[in-house]
């Protein structure tokens, strides 16, 4: 608990991605001077030999594992095998080769998709094993969940310090806005901005709009990871979120308002809704990490929309 990680070599897998870039900026601002970010073009983390080479090159004292194949409901349904295999094999090998390399601490980013489909809200960490995940993203959720099993097993047998975080749905600037693979917030932002620019009268949204979700702004997630690295060394997983939920319908209406889209929102119930409700109990994060999310949903959406319109979504109108 007394380790000064700012002076140690810390590797961040996925460090150039959406969450990773926010985290590395946060760590840099906090004085971390020895960060190593493995690029996919240089290290394919699904290949054992390249994972071993990554550890030989980086010589990290701590590893934060963010690299993942992730996407929305549609992407999970189209590629369940890829989502299971790539996420499982990356994490399993990274933890095993961290053991062989004598890495002092590993921080593993899990997923809220690991929780059972009908977990009573708010989701408590103790509920994690009380059922099967929601079917549309179960392969992804279970692949990430096995890394918690591995982390606890390696702690028990080898004494490794591996911690496991369970974040809510993330969003923010630099998110993935690809309509084929994006999650709900960037998908809705893109739809609303494009419809406003094209002066369309309506947009179609997936499902019924009835399910609820909890959304965590990416910079808040990055701060939680920094605090976990510096302050937490226990085997129990920790939820990272806001503790507040919003229905998809309310979310869509808010995004339409903030993007200036004044048309109708229509709902397609033939499309899957996914898990009925998602909201996390965040008491453990506050108690053990001293973490509390500081960005409201409306403020985070404004920042995300501003970034999208200025960077990606420029167009007529």
Describe the structure.
The chain is an alpha/beta fold and 317 residues long. The chain is 42% helix and 14% strand. It has helices at residues 18-29, 48-58, 73-78, 80-101, 138-158, 184-198, 218-231, 248-259, 283-288, 297-311; strands at 10-13, 35-36, 62-65, 105-109, 161-167, 169-171, 202-206, 212-213, 215-217, 238-240, 246-247, 264-268. The strands form 4 sheets. A 6-stranded parallel β-sheet has the order 2-1-3-4-5-10, sandwiched between helices. It has a two-stranded parallel sheet with strand order 6-9. A two-stranded parallel sheet has the order 7-12. β1 (10-13), α1 and β2 (35-36) form a beta-alpha-beta unit. α8 packs across α10 (297-311). The longest helix is centred in the first third of the chain and has 22 residues, at 80-101. The mean pLDDT is 95.
Summarize the structure.
The mean pLDDT is about 95. The protein is α/β, with parallel strands linked by helices and about 325 residues long.
């Amino acid at each position: 608990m007394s380790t000064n990680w700012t002076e140690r070599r810390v590797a961040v897998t996925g460090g150039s991605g959406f969450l990773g870039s926010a985290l590395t900026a946060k760590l840099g601002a906090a004085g971390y001077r020895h960060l190593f970010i493995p690029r996919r073009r240089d290290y394919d983390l699904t290949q054992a030999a390249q994972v071993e080479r990554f550890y030989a090159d980086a010589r990290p004292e701590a590893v934060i594992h963010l690299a993942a194949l992730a996407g929305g409901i549609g992407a999970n349904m189209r590629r369940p095998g890829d989502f299971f295999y790539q996420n499982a094999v990356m994490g399993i090998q990274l933890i095993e080769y961290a053991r062989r390399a004598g890495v002092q601490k590993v921080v593993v980013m899990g997923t809220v998709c690991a929780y059972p489909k009908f977990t009573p809200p708010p989701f408590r960490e103790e509920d994690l094993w009380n059922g099967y995940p929601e079917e549309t993203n179960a392969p992804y959720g279970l692949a990430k969940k096995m890394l918690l099993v591995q982390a606890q097993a390696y702690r028990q047998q080898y004494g490794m310090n591996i911690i496991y975080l369970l974040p809510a749905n993330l969003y923010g600037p630099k998110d993935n806005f690809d309509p084929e693979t994006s999650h709900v917030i960037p998908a809705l932002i893109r739809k609303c901005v494009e419809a406003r620019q094209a002066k369309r009268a309506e947009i179609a949204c997936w499902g019924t709009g009835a399910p609820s979700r909890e959304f965590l702004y990416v910079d808040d997630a990055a701060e939680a990871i920094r605090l976990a690295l510096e302050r937490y060394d226990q085997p129990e997983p920790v939820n990272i979120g806001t503790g507040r939920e919003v229905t998809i319908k309310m979310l869509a209406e808010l995004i339409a308002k903030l993007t200036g889209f004044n048309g109708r929102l229509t709902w397609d119930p033939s499309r899957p809704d996914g898990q009925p409700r998602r909201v996390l109990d965040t008491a453990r994060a506050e108690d053990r990490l001293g973490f509390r999310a500081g960005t409201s949903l409306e403020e985070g959406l404004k920042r995300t929309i501003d970034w999208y319109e200025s960077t990606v979504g420029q167009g007529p109108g």
